[in-house]
Amino acid sequence: MDMRERELVIDATGLILGRLASLTAKKLLSGERVIIINAEKAVVSGKKKSLLEELKSYLEIGHPGKGPYHYRRPDGILRRTIRGMLPRRKTKGKNAYKRLRVYLGVPRDLEGVKAETLKEAQAEKLRGPYITLGELAKEIGWSGMNDV
């Protein structure tokens, strides 16, 4: 059996971050291998200014050498959000987290694969303001797609 048949490829373009993370966590815990592409195009609901204030205060927590370490790349932020929804200290949570792959853009080996989208996490349902994960990451120090 081909390995790609057991993998679920999700395109994060236009999907709400929290809903995408919770649905992905459920799929990981059920034993599926999940690959998320276009992580920088996922959206976070809320006003840009208030989101940035909240995130910048969160980034001040900790010590640069001792942690906790805060991701600034969109794929790291998305992985960390999903990790927060898994029981990561238990064996099933650790194994589930190992089955997750998150990419910026579309990697070469996945260019021909048809990616799915999650209807429950579509951003079209949002009535209020939102910002993409890529824009949010650039505001907190990510230099863009050139550091991939």
Give a verbal description of the structure.
This protein is an alpha/beta fold and 148 residues long. It has a single domain (3-142), classed as Ribosomal protein L13 (Ribosomal Protein L13p, Chain: A), CATH 3.90.1180.10. It contains five helices and five strands; from the N terminus they run βαββαααββα. The chain has helices spanning 17-29, 48-59, 74-83, 91-98, 133-139; strands at residues 7-11, 33-37, 43-45, 100-102, 130-132. The strands form two sheets. It has a three-stranded parallel beta sheet with strand order 1-2-4. The termini are far apart.
Keywords:
148 residues, two-stranded antiparallel ribbon, Ribosomal Protein L13p, Chain: A, alpha/beta
Set down the secondary structure blueprint.
Elements: E1 7-11, H1 17-29, E2 33-37, E3 43-45, H2 48-59, H3 74-83, H4 91-98, E4 100-102, E5 130-132, H5 133-139
Parallel strand pairs: 1-2, 2-4
Antiparallel strand pairs: 3-5
Helix pairs in contact: 1-3
